[in-house]
Design brief:
Elements: H1 15-19, H2 21-36, H3 52-76, H4 79-82
Length: 89
C-alpha cells in the first residue's frame, strides 16, 4: 500500500482561523491606538507569546500598530505634502 500524497495546497491557519474575525479587528484596533499614541511596541500584551493563538494576536496587534504609526506620520505632515500624487503632480 502506498502512502497518501500530502495536500500541499493547505496553508497554516490564519489569524482569523485561530481567533475569529471580530477578535482580529479588536486587537488591530488596540495596536493602532498604541501606534497613534506613539507608545512603544513593547506595550503589546502578547510580546512574549509562545502559543499559536497568542502569536497570532501579537501579529495582529503589530499590524495595527504599524497602521497607527503610519496614521501618525501622515497626520504630522502638512497638507501640501499629503495631497501630492506619488509622481509629484
Amino acid at each position: 500500500m502506498t502512502e497518501p500524497t500530502p495536500d500541499i495546497t493547505r496553508q497554516s491557519p490564519s489569524a482569523a482561523d485561530l481567533l475569529g474575525p471580530l477578535e482580529v479587528l479588536a486587537i488591530q484596533d488596540q495596536g493602532r491606538a498604541a501606534g497613534f499614541a506613539a507608545e512603544s511596541p513593547l506595550t503589546c500584551p502578547w510580546a512574549r507569546a509562545t502559543e499559536p493563538a497568542d502569536n497570532a494576536r501579537k501579529d495582529m496587534w503589530i499590524r495595527g500598530y504599524a497602521a497607527g504609526k503610519t496614521d501618525l506620520r501622515i497626520a504630522k505632515q502638512p497638507d501640501s505634502v499629503t495631497r501630492q500624487s506619488p509622481r509629484g503632480h
